[in-house]
Specification:
The chain is α/β, with parallel strands linked by helices. The protein contains 13 helices and 8 strands. Bound molecules: nicotinamide-adenine-dinucleotide. Nicotinamide-adenine-dinucleotide binds near residues 21, 22 and 42.
Amino acid sequence: MDEPVKGPALPQSAAIIGAGTMGLGVAETFALAGLDVALVDATPVLTGRALERLDERVRGHIDAGLLPAEALERLLSVRAADDIADAVQSADLVLEAAPESIEIKREVLAECDARAPAAAIIATNTSSLPIDELAAFVQRKERFLGMHWFNPPEWTPAVEIIRSEFTDPLIVEIAREFLLRIGKRPATVASAPGFVANRIQFALFREALACVEEGLATPADVDELVRSSFGFRLPFYGPFQIADMAGLDVYASIFDVLSAGLGPGWEAPELLRDIVAAGRLGTKSLAGFYDYSDDERAALLLERDKRYAALMRLLEAFPDQSKPRSEA
Ligand SMILES: NC(=O)c1ccc[n+]([C@@H]2O[C@H](COP(=O)([O-])OP(=O)(O)OC[C@H]3O[C@@H](n4cnc5c(N)ncnc54)[C@H](O)[C@@H]3O)[C@@H](O)[C@H]2O)c1
């Protein structure tokens, strides 16, 4: 890391266990941020191959103009470890990115816990396994949490920090500060099935599949609609900001139509009913999930239009390359 840090010390070195899709991308991110990284896969041969792939990938990114040439030197801070004990021996942060199997996680996390320095934070990249359950595999439950990266980890900004019921709030704060410091955009959530990001992502996918199954649209038409309608807004705004701008009373009415037509599960949630009943209808009433002054509302809507115009220009620079050849 480049500058001295105030407050609790942030990790300067990391061990990554599992050098697949995610582990390798996180290793690249950590190395480019200036951390010392020890990487280990299931066998020394696999670890060696992973390091070669990492080198090739970074060269590819440099050739494509996505990284500066110096990025290659930064990779010198990544070493292949012989085994988990070797990888974690002096790590401040251990990230487990082994396959999504509870048996493998049990074995790997227990070994990390037994071998890493007592002060090390242990994090798991699991996409779905309950963090409270995985915490049973380590003694240092207060220094254990979920750190859920998104593919491709070297480019996707968000990292979901998942606290278990045992995680020390200071450790959550250190993880958050650390991720901010290396250029990521962390969000902290509690442990629940699918956490938050995948729960929302899979609700979208479930309905996309249902629309195709019911013969309403083809996969290609669903893809076009999602990316070019509400998906167009998502790089800039989350669902609560979007709903505030649309009008919360309008959203409540739409839920009424959906529940009348699609049945139980589609009623407007109480949180929405209550906020509408309180007269908080979004930007039009200067209050919704967020509060706005007159000036803030005007600035927000103008900024929104500027962002959408800029996004249109960006999209025009990247015409579709990957139209599906056939549909399932
Ligand atoms: N792929 C994604 O989009 C994605 C996104 C977020 C989180 N995750 C999660 O990240 C974790 C890793 O996923 P992935 O997609 O990188 O999987 P992957 O299969 O690409 O990589 C897993 C790696 O772990 C190695 N491995 C197996 N057993 C091991 C052991 N005992 N010790 C060390 N390494 C071992 C494998 O050889 C492999 O290289 C999973 O928990 C997954 O749910 C995946």
